[in-house]
Design brief:
Blueprint lengths: L1 H13 L19 E5 L1 H6 L1 H6 L1 H8 L2 H10 L3 H4 E10 L5 E9 L3 H14 L4 E6 L2 E7 L6 E8 L2 E5 L2 H13 L7 H8 L7 E6 L18 H8 L2 E10 L3 E9 L2 H28 L4 H10 L1 E5 L2 E8 L1 H8 L4
Antiparallel strand pairs: 1-2, 1-8, 2-3, 3-7, 4-5, 5-6, 6-7, 8-9, 9-10, 10-12, 11-12
Helix pairs in contact: 1-5, 11-12, 12-13
C-alpha cells in the first residue's frame, strides 16, 4: 500500500518564454543512455491542466487512503514536487537500470517513519535497509523479482533506483557536490532541450535499433526498408509543452544528411497515411472532429541537416470538446 501511495503521489504530481537549455543533472550516473525530465511545477501551473485535470487530481488526493498516507509522508505532491529527472540504460527491456532524481521539498523523518510503519504489516513488499551510513527503503513487487530502492539525499532531493548500489552512489555524489558525468554526446543532446518545457525525453539509440522487427501490413510501408533506415538512427528527443495549448516536437537524429533525407521521406509518407485515416475517427466520434481537423492541419515533418523533425500543435478548445471537458 505504501509503495502504491508513494508512486501515486509522485505520478499525480507529474501529471512543469524563451528556450532555456536544460541542465545536466549531476546525480545521474555515467552509464545513462536516455533521460526523461518532467517539469512538474510548470505542468501543474499550466492553464490546460488547471482547466481540465487539476480538479480531478485534487479529488483523487483527497480520498481517505491517499490523504492519510500523504499526511504520514509529510507530502503535498501538488505543492512539494518541482521536477523529476530519470536516467535509464540497459541492453534490452529485461536488463534496464534507472536512477530517478525528484526535486522539491520533503520531510526525510516522516518519510522513513511512514516506511517503517508500513513494513510492520507488509514486510514482504517494503523494508528499511542500510548500506554503510546510508538508509534506504526497499520495495519488492509481487510478480516482479526486480527491486526498487528509495532514499533522501536532503530536504530538497529524493532518489530512487533499480539497485541499492545505484542509489548509494547517487547519495555519495550529492554529498560531494559532484559535477555532471554523462557521456559527451548525451550531455550535448540534453543541453539542446528546453528546461522550461513541460517535459522532454532524450537519448542515444545508436546500435540499439538493429534487428527491429517491423510488423507487416502497414499501409504504404516497406518493412525491410524501414528497418534499414532505423539502423541509422542515432538519437531521439521529444519535447511536450503544456500552456493554454499543447505542442509536441520530435527530433530524430540520423547518421548523416543522406540518411535523414531517406528516413524523412518515409516519415512524411507515414504522416500522410495517418491523415487519410483520421476522418474515419471523426466520423465515429463527432466530438473529436475539431481535434482531428487540427491534427490534420498541424501534424508536419521536415528534414533539417541530419535531423528528421515532427511537430504537432493542439488547442485547449479542441481537446476539451474531444474529452467532453467543455460539455
Amino acid at each position: 500500500m505504501f509503495r502504491r501511495m508513494l508512486a501515486g503521489a509522485v505520478l499525480a504530481a507529474g501529471l512543469a518564454a524563451p528556450v532555456r537549455a536544460a541542465e545536466v543533472d549531476p546525480l545521474l550516473p555515467a552509464e545513462t543512455e536516455a533521460v526523461i525530465f518532467v517539469n512538474v511545477r510548470q505542468v501543474l501551473d499550466s492553464d490546460l491542466v488547471k482547466k481540465y485535470a487539476l480538479g480531478q487530481l485534487k479529488q483523487a488526493l483527497a480520498g481517505n487512503d491517499a490523504k492519510k498516507m500523504l499526511e504520514k509522508l509529510g507530502l503535498d505532491p501538488l505543492k512539494d514536487v518541482d521536477r523529476v529527472t530519470a536516467g535509464s540504460w540497459g541492453k534490452d527491456k529485461d536488463d534496464m537500470n534507472f536512477v530517478a532524481v525528484v526535486r522539491g521539498r520533503f520531510d526525510p523523518k516522516k518519510l522513513f517513519e511512514a516506511a517503517q510503519e508500513e513494513a510492520k504489516t507488509n514486510g514482504d513488499k517494503i523494508a528499511i535497509v542500510e548500506d554503510g551510513k546510508y538508509k534506504l527503503i526497499k520495495f519488492t513487487q509481487d510478480k516482479d523479482p526486480k527491486e526498487v530502492y528509495l532514499s533522501v539525499a536532503d530536504e530538497k532531493t529524493v532518489l530512487a533506483g533499480s539497485s541499492k548500489k545505484l542509489v548509494t552512489g547517487a547519495l555519495a555524489a550529492a554529498e560531494k557536490g559532484a559535477k555532471p558525468q554523462l557521456k559527451k554526446d548525451l550531455a550535448a543532446l540534453l543541453l539542446k532541450q528546453d528546461e522550461k518545457a513541460s517535459m522532454f525525453a532524450a537519448g542515444l539509440v545508436e546500435g540499439k535499433t538493429e534487428g527491429v522487427q517491423i510488423p507487416p501490413g502497414l499501409p504504404g510501408i516497406d518493412p525491410a526498408k524501414l528497418a534499414k533506415q532505423l539502423e541509422k538512427l542515432q538519437s531521439f528527443a521529444m519535447t511536450l509543452r503544456l500552456t493554454e495549448d499543447v505542442s509536441l516536437e520530435v527530433a530524430m537524429g540520423m547518421k548523416d544528411a543522406d540518411a535523414a533525407d531517406d528516413f524523412g521521406a518515409t516519415v512524411e509518407g507515414l504522416i500522410g497515411t495517418v491523415k487519410q485515416f483520421l476522418p474515419l475517427l471523426a466520423g465515429q466520434q463527432p466530438n473529436a472532429k475539431p481535434l482531428v481537423d487540427e491534427i490534420t492541419k498541424t501534424l508536419k515533418s521536415k528534414v533539417k541537416d541530419k535531423d528528421v523533425l515532427v511537430t504537432l500543435k493542439l488547442s485547449a478548445e479542441s481537446i476539451g470538446k474531444a474529452t467532453g471537458g467543455d460539455n
